[in-house]
Amino acid sequence: MTDYSLNFEREGESIWGSNGPSRLQESFNLVDTLDLGFKIKESIPGIKAEIAVDAGFTFGLRGAVTLDPGTFDSQTPVDVSLDIPDDIVFGQEFSLGGSYVLTGGKLESTSPTVKASIGLVAGLELGGSAEIFLKAFGKQTKVLDKSFSLIDSRDYLELASMDGLSISFLPQVINALSSSLGSEVGSVLESLNTIDFDTVQFDLVQYGVPSAGFGVTYTIGNLYPTNIGEHPEGFPRFSLGDVTFGIPVVEASGGLRDGTRYVADGEDDLLDLDLDIDGLLQRPGEIEFNLSKKATLKVELFDIDFGPDFDVYQNVTYKPDLSVRLDFDREIDIDGTLANSVTVNVDELDSLSFKLDDYVAVTPTFLLGGSLTVDTGIDFDVDLTIAGGRFLLDYKLSSGKTKTIGAGPLFDEDITIFSDRLSIYDKTFDASVQEIVGDPFVIGPVLAARDDTAGTDEIDAIVIDLLGNDAQRNSGGTLAIQALDLSGVAGLVTDNGD
């Protein structure tokens, strides 16, 4: 038995087919790198010598853009076992066996998107040189010519990055603070440091009973809301509903399922329409407290919303298939035909018959292919949302505008009344084939020996003759092999180095 632990990786392969567009990455200088430096030279009196000190500072601005037309990345670790029979006899047919197990890994994909970044390139250099000459017998000889470097450092600091319609600032600094301060503080810092433009929400508001006016408040991403229309002061405010439009960028992620396939799922908002049921009923679940002339506290005991929700989904399924190509150092009989190479699915290796007339060296090359299925479409559902325990504080600024801050809700429950899925793009295609070359081994009967030492020496000589002196890999100088039974007829294989 010969075992291999393999790890296949894919990056940036198209979700639109084997000939689909791939990820395009480009970097460029926004401000050319500038080098500012100086040199100090000093001569030593009485000796023909010169010492110089060089110092310099480098800075510039560098940008990068990634155009992702829709790609996937994967990691597929595989444990493979090749079974070498222990009863091989020259001139008689035998079979090899094989099996493999997927041992984890991951699958990630993204729909078409654009990423960009801008950063500062800065560097510091500090060094010098020394030259000394001696004059003897009227001749000048250089006895020292030495250059040295004390500091030579160049770093890149990302100032801002854009991922789809999300912009963040100093992401490297925020990540470092998140690592040192903890994930909870890190998530707060990230939310404060990120501006989102991926959604636009419109809230329809009624003022007073009977109505003293209607207004609309729209909010882009996580920016401050903006009021348009009528928003008269001094009247109770009732939310009638809201509409949210999203620009979806679907990032799907997942891993191994059922031990045979990798599945990644993801979705993003497209359209969400909600009617505020309690708002239409003039908010029977809301209590209002006037704290002062400028501040009002509202407590929402419950909030009931009802409406349809449209999301763009993406489901990617990768089903690996592992084959092996066996390359022999000479032609052998394979299924009655002389050949020096054969390719077969690992699980079907035992379907072939082999026949040897001498020992043979074998180099296995493992080929991971398989199929990829991409399903993209619209998820549609109608939800009833019941929430409660939300606290809102309205206060007037000196400018006369009203700002609202809030906390909660304490509970939030979604009840799906109806749901359906419309597939728009559903395609299965062959994934690209990746190769990993395994360590070679030797197959053939083990020589009958008068004693273990003699048998091992003869086996060593055969394997080294076939695989070369590199087969002697251990510190004791003896061949690292698996000899199943030196006193009889057995298969002979070398250990592989994972």
Report a brief summary of the structure:
The chain is mostly beta strands and 498 residues long.
Which descriptors would you attach to this protein?
498 residues, mainly beta, 17-stranded antiparallel beta sheet, six-stranded antiparallel beta sheet, 4 helices, 29 strands, flat, disordered C terminus
Topology:
Layout: E1 2-14, E2 24-43, E3 48-68, E4 71-83, E5 97-102, E6 106-110, E7 113-136, E8 139-163, E9 166-169, H1 171-181, H2 183-193, E10 194-196, E11 199-207, E12 213-220, E13 226-229, E14 237-246, E15 251-257, E16 261-276, H3 277-280, E17 286-290, E18 295-300, E19 303-334, E20 337-345, E21 354-355, E22 360-388, E23 390-396, E24 402-407, E25 411-430, E26 434-437, E27 441-443, H4 452-467, E28 481-483, E29 492-494
Antiparallel strand pairs: 1-4, 2-3, 3-7, 4-5, 4-6, 6-15, 7-8, 8-9, 9-10, 11-12, 11-14, 12-13, 14-16, 15-16, 16-19, 17-18, 18-23, 19-20, 19-21, 19-22, 22-25, 22-26, 22-27, 23-24, 28-29
